[in-house]
Amino acid sequence: MNNKYPDTLQKLIDCFEGLPGVGKKTAERYALYVFMHMKEEEIVDFSNALLSLHKDIHICSSCGNISEHELCSICSDTTRNHRQILVVESIKDLFTLERVGEYKGIYHVLNGSISFTKGIGIDDLNIEPLVNKVKNNEVSEIILATNATIEGETTAKYLNELLKQYDVKVTRIAHGLPVGGDISYLDEMTLIKAFEGRREY
Amino acid sequence: MNNKYPDTLQKLIDCFEGLPGVGKKTAERYALYVFMHMKEEEIVDFSNALLSLHKDIHICSSCGNISEHELCSICSDTTRNHRQILVVESIKDLFTLERVGEYKGIYHVLNGSISFTKGIGIDDLNIEPLVNKVKNNEVSEIILATNATIEGETTAKYLNELLKQYDVKVTRIAHGLPVGGDISYLDEMTLIKAFEGRREY
After folding, report:
1. For the residues A155-182, what does the mean pLDDT come to?
2. Are A17 and B113 within 8 A, CB to CB?
3. In which element (H, E) is residue A52 found?
4. How many domains does the structure of chain A reveal?
5. Which of A 9-28 lie inside 8 A of B, CB atoms?
6. pLDDT on residue A1
């Protein structure tokens, strides 16, 4: 039978298929595109970019953001309000909010949300460092900016319950987020409104 | 400003954005997924798969298919009918047809189709080796299996005009291909019918 791609190409197809939302057809399309249309030096760049990732980038030890140093550029910025923490599900959400440029506090990345269907519980999320900051009285406001999905709302509710025993104001980003929506796909105006309209839990 | 990804990550995002149909948001999603969820050895494999591509795979000197040797496994298969050539636009189409397992001749990959909007002319396509085979009396039937798009039909029409001066039967794959459809997304039965229902040009 000749209906198989050469091993090397199949290997690359498998790699692309490992990416989120990429099926067999799309993976084939990507791999064949790389082979047929990318220049040799572009492929080398691509390969190096993959290898450099974990060499050059780390997770910020304070907030969970990506960083080229131990502390990320936001956590090491002394002009920002370190007593105000905006809690997001993912680094992508952090960057989406940061692009708006309105927020001057710091962040905390949960790295997911509570999901019964995906089997993601509180122990799988980056919660403890946040609670420690609150316990140590380092925080005056926690803004919960998890997505408006079931998982995001569940996570926000859980964090509110967990944090209300401490002397900290807990708010939830609210207006403008359509139910079922994903923060990283929102426009800037909606995000600004959602941010301004936050209410106390 | 902190609204930029670290350079290494941005580089990877740019690489993903170079793939067909991948926009900024999707490229970010892919790159962050690689960073957050792929294991170190998976990333190394991915990187190596990219680098190995042009080392291990070549274009078959006879038909334009991908191959680990100078001649692809189809062209070097003596049990196949080398006097029947199925002409496709892309390697992906070749593999889609080959998976059906019905066809026992050989292939010819044009590597594109005539497109006025994209500025792709006959000189950009892999046509000459096909004509040479016909001229040398090596072929008894050419089956045109370009897509049922304007570009595919234009290319089929052009090839028919070009080849009718020679002593070769030129047919066009026909029934079952929905207008505007793409061969690589069709199911096997439709492909078999399209193949059986081919008519003489």
Report:
1. 81
2. no
3. helix A40-56
4. 2
5. 9, 11-12, 15, 18-22, 25-26, 28
6. 40
Report yes or no for ipTM above 0.85: no
pLDDT tens, residue by residue, B125-138 = 999 999 999 999 88
Chain B residue at shortest CA distance from A22: B30
B89 and B122 fall within a common domain: yes
Question: Which of B22, B30, B51 has the CB atom closest to A43's CB atom?
Answer: B51
pTM for the complete prediction? 0.73
Is the same domain home to B107 and B170?
Answer: yes
Question: Contacts of residue A7 in chain B, CB cutoff 8 Å?
Answer: 56, 68
Residue B201: burial class (beta carbons within 10 Å; 0-12, 13-18, 19+): middle
B39: domain range?
Answer: 7-56
In angstroms, the separation between the Cα of residue B48 and the nearest Cα of chain A is 7
The crossing angle, in degrees rounded to 10, of helices B24-37 and A40-56 is 50
Coil/strand/helix, residue B176: coil
Instruction: Decide if A134 is inside a domain.
Output: yes
Q: Which residue of B has its CA nearest to A56?
A: B8
Q: How close is the nearest chain B Cα to the Cα of A26, in Å? A: 9
Judge: B57–A98 Cβ closer than 8 Å, yes or no: no
Instruction: Report d(CA A119, CA A100) in Å as an integer.
Output: 32
Strands A58-59 and A66-67, how do they pair? antiparallel
The amino acid at residue A149 is T
Answer yes or no: are the C-beta atoms of A165 and A129 closer than 8 Å.
no
CATH number, domain at B116?
3.40.1360.10
What residues of B are in contact with residue A56 (Cβ under 8 Å)? Answer: 6-8
Distance CA B194, CA B177 (A): 6
Same domain, A140 and A182: yes
Asked if B30 reaches chain A (Cβ–Cβ under 8 Å), the answer is yes
